[in-house]
Amino acid sequence: MPYHHNFEESEDRSTEPPRNKCLACLKANTLTIATVTGVVIGAIVGVVLRNTRDSWSEREIMYIGYMGNIFLRMLKCLIIPLIIASLVSAIASLDLSLSGKIAARAIAYYLTTTFAAVVLGMVLVVAIKPGVGHAQKNQTLEVDSRNITTVDTLLDLIKNMFPPNIIEACIFQYRTKLIPTSDSQTDIFDFKISTEVVQNTNILGLVVAAAAVGIAIAQVGEEAQAIGNFFHGLMAVSMKITTWVIFLSPVGILFLVASEVLEMDDMASVMSSLGLYFATVCLGLLIQGFVVLPFLYFALTRKNPATFVHNMGQAIATAFGTASSSATLPVTIRCLEDNLGVDRRVARFALPIGATINMDGTALYEAVAAIFIAQVRGVPLDIGHLIAISVTATAASIGAAGIPQAGLVTMVMVLDTVGLPAGDVSLILAVDWLLDRFRTAINVMGDAFGAGIVYHRSMKELGLLNTSTSDISSATEATKLNKEKQKNGKRKDKDQDTAVEMSRF
C-alpha cells in the first residue's frame, strides 16, 4: 500500500436527476428525519407518562431510559479510537507545513467564535437583566464545591495536555485539590496542595499525544509506513462501526429524551422563576448558531450556510439527544464527509480538535449563568469583572469535557472570578439538563462550520498536495515498469544465449 493514503471518494456520484425530487429528498434524509422525529416523540411520550401518575420512581425512569443509555454507551465507546485514529492518520497523510496551516486556521477560528459567543452572552444578560428582582431561595442540591482557584484550573488544563501515561489518559485525568491545614485557615492560597485522580477521559491529553504521533510518522516517512497504515485502517473500521450504531439513533434518542422529561421538576414552577434566564440563554444560542456562525461561513466561503446546516441535521439532532459533543463526533465526521464532501484529512484533523477546545454554546451559557447568579445575589459587576468573566469563560469552555453537563463543573471556575460560592450553581440546575442539549447542538454546529471553513481556505494547498502525491505515485509506477522491462530484457537475452549454446550441441 502506498504511504500517502488517497482520502478522496472513489465512487462515482454522477447519477441521473431523479424523477420525483420530493421522494429522493426523503430517501436521502430518512435517518435525519427519523432522528428528529425520535426527539419529538420522546418528548411527547415523556409528557404523557408524567400525566398518567403523580411521580415515577428512579428505577422506573431507569427502565424507560435503558435503551437510550445503551445507545449512548455505544457512541462513547467509539470516541477514543476515532479521536486517536483520525488525528494520526490525517496528520500523517498531510505535508507537515500544511498540517501547521490547517491547525492554525482551525484554532484561530475556534478561539474567535468562542470569545464572540462569550461577548454575545454577556451583552444579552446585561441588557435583559434576567436575575434582577428574582431572588431565589437557597437550595440544598449537591454541587461540586471543592476548593479550587482559577489559576489552578488553568494550570490543570495545561498539565492534562501532557499525560504521564497514555493508557491511563483513556480513563483518568488529574486535577489539583486544595486541603486546609486547620479549621481557622481562610486564605485558599495557603491551603496544602495535592492532586486527585478523576475517572474521566483526558481528551485533551489524547489529542496532543495523537498529534505528536502523527507528526512523528510524517517525519520518519517510509520506515513508519506500517504504523500509518494501521491507524488509517483503524479509522476505516471505526467509521464502519459508526454507520451501524447511527441506525439506532432514532430509538436511542427517543428513550433518552423520554426519561429526561420524566426526571425533570415541575416545568411550570421552574419557568416561573427561571423562565427569563432560560429565554436569555436560548436567544444567545439561537443568534450564535443561526446568525453569527452562518455569517462567518458565508463571508469566508461564499457558500450557502442553509444548505450546510441542512446537511448537518443528523449530527445536530444526535447532539441534542445525547447532550455530548464527543459522543456525536462519529456522526459529525460522517455528515461532513458524506453529505458535504469535506476532505477527509481536514474533517478528521479539525473535528477532534474542535470537539475538545471549541465550545461556543458552553462558553455563552457560562457567561450568562455567572452574571445571572450575580444579579440574583445582588453583587454589582464593573467592567473589570466583565472582562475577567469573558476570559475565564473562554478558558473554562476549552477545559470542559465533551460529556453531558460538564459545563457545571467549569462553572465553579467562572463563579470564583466573580467572588460567588460554588453552591450558587444550584440556582440554575433545574433547567440545566435542557439547556445542556441546546448548547451541545450549537457546539457541534460550531465544530462543523469550522471544519467547512478550514477546508475551503485550504483547498489550494490540498490540491497541490494531491498533485504531488499523484506525481510520486506515477513516478513510482514508472520505476516499477522500467525495472520489469529490464528484468524481461535480461530474461530474453539469457534465453537466447541458452538457445545458442543448445544449437552448438
From TrEMBL:
UniProt record similarity statement: Belongs to the dicarboxylate/amino acid:cation symporter (DAACS) (TC 2.A.23) family.
Keyword Ligase belongs to the record: no
Residue ranges of the TM segments: 28-49, 70-94, 106-128, 202-221, 241-262, 274-300
Protein's name according to its UniProt entry: Amino acid transporter
Protein's membrane topology: Multi-pass membrane protein
Electron transport listed as a keyword: no
Region of interest (Disordered), ranges: 477-505
GO molecular function: glutamate:sodium symporter activity; L-glutamate transmembrane transporter activity; neutral L-amino acid transmembrane transporter activity
Record keywords, A-Z: Glycoprotein, Membrane, Symport, Transmembrane, Transmembrane helix, Transport
Cellular localisation: Membrane
Organism this protein belongs to: Callosobruchus maculatus
Pfam (any one): SDF
Lineage, uppermost ranks: Eukaryota, Metazoa, Ecdysozoa, Arthropoda, Hexapoda
Superkingdom assignment: Eukaryota
Record GO cellular component, one term: plasma membrane
Biased composition (Basic and acidic residues): 480-505
